[in-house]
Design brief:
This protein is of the alpha+beta class. 29% of the residues lie in helices and 17% in strands. It folds into two domains: 278 residues, FAD/NAD(P)-binding domain, CATH 3.50.50; 145 residues, Elongation Factor Tu (Ef-tu), domain 3 (Beta Barrel). It is built from twelve helices and 18 strands.
Length: 434
């Protein structure tokens, strides 16, 4: 039996390799160099488009722990990445051309992988892994749209930042819902007039990320406008929009404030919160300055910055199991950024899991569902969590893991907590047959 893998990026290359080394024949489709995405520069596989960094390789960092997990699970591209490493302190940065060249050579020389340079415009019959990435071609995106239903596919993305709840200062912030309706489920950061005007000044003078040519002309819904665009319409626009203070009273003070920033729970463990209405295209340094000007967020830990760019991704919570298998078609899996896992390391990791599970599916073995105590397991559980109402892509971070209890006197010791989370993760992978 042959498997069709669509896309020879990081996820598709890893998935193909996992299948091939288990003796399964693969047809790997890649439209480049015949047809460009507008961002890629070559026709080589696993090309890094933006940064050349895969983030930290220290397991006291969530991204570093994910790399260790991948090596324990038999990842192939992560080993090549370490072989192509260039000096970058604690980060795993690579010679991107050398990395892509080596992956391409290994894929093309593998007798179990048949490379087909052709654009796919329909989802093939039989076993398929779709790893076409955030820059999926319009024709194939239409085919995915038909399969997923239109409301389950997104094309242009404006994302709000997500922060770690433990870094919020609750001497200033408070829990409440507007007009006290229902549970007090929002975190509210109040501002007086002086604080709001300082925030507005920072926002309207901050640098924005310049969109690439293929991203220009993107259309956004009014309900999803970047916060800087709303602010450009007038100094009080935000106060009558996402930062309106009415109905939000801090019972400790009894004051109705000049403006209020609300944060909404983002994961089941209540460790991550996103800023309501804060979709943005500001540069990351500017975002940090802006958020830390908000009372209660002075020392906030941002686990995902806001972005605005072309990004094709499926509504995974409605479509996928944590195995990356689709719920309605057992021989169809998704992998990579199209699933809503952001980042280079995360793309490779999802391709690894999709490849392993497709091989298991073909051989009639139970699929591998990784425990949510691992970073990769937490990621796949996060993107397949049916409780999401407004799903947005996310990368590896400590906040998505099941929390760990520490003695009261140690609860603020982040280093210890991260070390224990990493230890628990690696122990939970012991004995898993791959």
């Amino acid at each position: 039996m042959e498997v069709n893998v669509i896309g020879a990026g990081l996820a598709g290359s890893e998935a193909s390799w996992q299948l091939a080394k288990r003796g399964i024949k693969v047809n790997l489709y890649e439209m480049r160099p015949e047809k460009s995405t507008g961002a890629h520069k070559t026709g080589k596989f696993a090309e890094f488009v933006c940064s050349n960094s895969l983030g930290s390789h220290d397991i006291s960092n969530a991204s570093g722990l994910l790399k260790r997990e991948m090596r324990l699970l038999g990842g192939e591209l992560i080993d090549i990445a370490f072989d192509c490493q260039v000096p970058a302190g604690g980060a795993l940065a690579i010679d991107r051309e050398l990395f892509s060249q080596r992956v391409t050579e290994k894929i093309q020389s593998n007798s179990n992988i048949n490379v087909i340079n052709k654009e796919v415009v329909e989802i093939p019959d039989g076993p398929v892994i779709i790893a076409s990435g955030p820059l999926t071609s319009p024709d194939f995106a239409n085919a995915i749209k038909e399969f997923t239903q239109s409301e389950h596919l997104y094309f242009f993305d404006a994302i709000a930042p997500i922060v770690d709840v433990e870094s919020i200062n609750f001497d200033k912030a408070f829990y409440a819902s507007r007009y006290d309706k229902g549970e007090a489920s929002y975190i509210n950061c109040p501002m007086n007039r002086e604080e709001y005007e300082r925030f507005y000044d920072i926002l309207t003078h901050s640098e924005k990320i310049e969109l690439k040519e293929f991203e220009k002309g993107a259309k956004f819904f009014e309900s999803c406008l970047p916060i800087e665009v709303i602010a450009s319409r007038g100094v009080d626009t935000l106060r009558f929009g996402p930062m309106k203070p009415v109905g939000l009273i801090d019972k400790r003070t009894g004051i109705e404030n000049y403006a209020v920033v609300q944060l909404r729970q983002d994961n089941s463990a209540k460790t991550l919160y996103n800023l309501v209405g804060f979709q943005t295209n500001l540069k990351w340094g500017a975002q940090k300055e802006l958020l830390q000007s908000i009372p209660g967020l002075e020392n906030v830990n941002i686990v995902r910055y806001g972005v605005m760019h072309r990004n094709t991704f499926i509504n995974s919570p409605k479509l996928l199991n944590p195995t990356l298998q689709t719920r309605t078609r057992k021989d169809l899996f998704f992998a990579g950024q199209i699933t809503g896992t952001e980042g280079y390391t995360e793309s490779i990791a999802s391709g690894l899991l999709a490849g392993i599970n497709m091989a298991r599916y073909i051989s009639g073995e139970p699929l591998l569902t990784l425990p949510p105590t691992t970073i990769l397991g937490a990621l796949t559980h996060y993107i397949s969590d049916e409780n999401h109402t407004k799903f947005q892509p996310i990368n590896s971070n400590w906040g998505i893991l099941e929390p760990i209890e520490l003695p009261k006197k140690e609860r603020k010791n982040k280093k210890l907590k991260n070390e224990l989370l990493a230890k628990r993760s690696l122990e939970s992978l012991e004995g898993i047959k791959i």
